[in-house]
Amino acid sequence: MRNEDRCRISGYRYEKMLKIKDLGEFGFINRLNPKETVTGLKLGIGDDAAVISPPEGFDLVITTDMLMEGKHFLSDTNPYAIGYRSMCANLSDIAAMGAIPKFYFISLGIDPERDFDYVENIYNGLNSLALQFNTHLAGGDTIKSEKTVLSITLIGYVEKSMAIKREGKIEAKDLIVYIGPLGYSGAGLEVIKNKIDGFDEQVEAFLYPYPQVIAGRILLQSKVVRVMMDNSDGLSNCIENLVIKNGFGALLFEKQIFDERLDAIAEATNKDYLDFVFNGGEDFGLVAVVEKDGFLDLTYFLERALFDSKVKVIGEVIEGEKIVLKRLNDSFLVIEKSGYVQF
Amino acid sequence: MRNEDRCRISGYRYEKMLKIKDLGEFGFINRLNPKETVTGLKLGIGDDAAVISPPEGFDLVITTDMLMEGKHFLSDTNPYAIGYRSMCANLSDIAAMGAIPKFYFISLGIDPERDFDYVENIYNGLNSLALQFNTHLAGGDTIKSEKTVLSITLIGYVEKSMAIKREGKIEAKDLIVYIGPLGYSGAGLEVIKNKIDGFDEQVEAFLYPYPQVIAGRILLQSKVVRVMMDNSDGLSNCIENLVIKNGFGALLFEKQIFDERLDAIAEATNKDYLDFVFNGGEDFGLVAVVEKDGFLDLTYFLERALFDSKVKVIGEVIEGEKIVLKRLNDSFLVIEKSGYVQF
């Protein structure tokens, strides 16, 4: 290979047109292997297994997520976005437990005819988010595959027995709170599909969602959160899991949920903005049930840490296992899996 | 569904002809969720992430391995064998560190048109090996995929700073030892391909290899092992990694490697039995470099634990970075990646 065929992109020097198949398994994985020392990582890529030294007094939190070409992305989807999104889903799961993300493992199936920069861009996408949270690659496996398939396993730490679960004891009058954009991801997808101008924030929320890792840590430290999960499948699913399955119902307030921008997108695409909110998902916000008396503590904690309380009280826990939305006009709407029932 | 359509296989009651698509993601994963309490597993399948409580004084050992239809197995391969083999590869990686396997996570891409018992049989195959080593399912992700793809992440524990690596300080006169069948897997594949009768042990070694988890623990406890790895890519690759890369060479003894059964299979299939040994791999035995003075301790440990020393001294470390085989007729053969050089 001649020297002029080499170039430098994002800190790496690599050979132009280098194919995956030119590298072999070991060459390939060694190229992704970060050489710097990472605290707690005793042995990274290159041995039979990775060795990690967990701090004492902490539990481990582990999540795994798989993405596949043709289902979650297309053959020509920007590989950076594939990596970014995959890491976001995993970080969001860790955030939803109130935990600290730490190490990730990649299993990657890839066509050996792909250029090496395709893989490198997946990795750059993964790392662009991971490194923001001091989270590092610790191992992986790569195989040949016609379609790209990516499975990430992420390991984090949480103070012993402090992980925030979905299942738990809640009470009537508890507050239902939300942190992050709500319904923006689904709306952003419609903006892209319908080529509408002027909704950059929603498009950004769809393309590059942000995991609420810091907020998750603050929610855990506030000690007033009873149950929590991330909004990856829509708000209905979250309320179902956190409230209904724990034996109560939810009264939600539209005035806290309503968003003019969402409504405008809904109108332009002949939809109901509530669909984005309740069935959209992929927002990766956090939904939590919080002790009513503790809510002020929570906003204080959040404001001190993020210079912005960011948290919205979207409803409260009620007796009776149903989800009711109090509309802007003070009428009520029952939210069901199959749709809405006006009454 | 009528009652007579139900049947009971391997302890499960399930509906005949039930498709993956009939279950949905949650129904599907809940069916695999073992309901019994597992020590150290605080939260299993069903939340955003699993929570594990690691014992103090231990490091974590983590490995991940991906298998794909079309590459590692065929569309009609027995799903039990797919699960079994995948678990074996992961357990073997943990064994190669001298660690204790503990929890596994599945990422599974599967065609929703498949019958549910296909997945259940993958899971039964995984568990048939995992449960032998007190290793339990702790989480997973399932997606739709035309081709079956399976990624397993396995987490184990090892006494702090005691994990046995590939890279390390070795010395001339150290012994090179092997535990497990050597070359049997590759030979077994030839037996199947060529439909030869009478080599059940080799066929078994190919179809249902056994991970050397117990031996790995004993090797660690003996404290005389310098470096170790598992034989998943053939003996040449192991010696390359454990000896050559650590700055020495290896003198191997054919009289310790030669096996009449392998030789018979080689003859029947017009091959050299040394190919099975050096380039076969997939045997999942353990290769280790051991202090010469400590070897007796090691055999004592192994005999006490397994009622069989099982360990073979196949060679010794020499100066000079090459691999030499002392043949049965006392001639020498240099083993190279590209082949053999007689001298």
What is the compact description of this entry?
The first copy, chain A, has about 350 residues and is of the alpha+beta class. Helices cover about 35% and strands about 30% of the residues of chain A. Chain A folds into two domains: about 5-160, 60s Ribosomal Protein L30, Chain: A, CATH 3.30.1330; about 175-340, Alpha-Beta Complex (Phosphoribosyl-aminoimidazole Synthetase, Chain A, domain 2).
Give descriptors for this structure.
homodimer; 343 residues; alpha+beta; 60s Ribosomal Protein L30, Chain: A; Phosphoribosyl-aminoimidazole Synthetase, Chain A, domain 2; 2 domains; eight-stranded mixed beta sheet; four-stranded mixed beta sheet; 11 helices; 33% helix; disordered N terminus
What does this structure look like?
The structure is a homodimer of 343-residue chains. Helix content of chain A is 33%, strand content 29%. The first copy, chain A, is of the alpha+beta class and 343 residues long. Chain A has two domains: 157 residues, PurM-like, N-terminal domain (60s Ribosomal Protein L30, Chain: A); 168 residues, PurM-like C-terminal domain (Phosphoribosyl-aminoimidazole Synthetase, Chain A, domain 2, Alpha-Beta Complex), CATH 3.90.650.10. An eight-stranded mixed sheet of chain A has the order 10-12-9-13-11-14-15-16, sandwiched between helices. The radius of gyration of chain A is 22 Å and the shape is globular. At the A-B interface, strand 4, strand 5, helix 2, strand 6 and strand 7 of A face strand 4, strand 5, helix 2, strand 6 and strand 7 of B. Strand 4 of chain A pairs antiparallel with strand 5 of chain B, so a sheet runs across the interface.
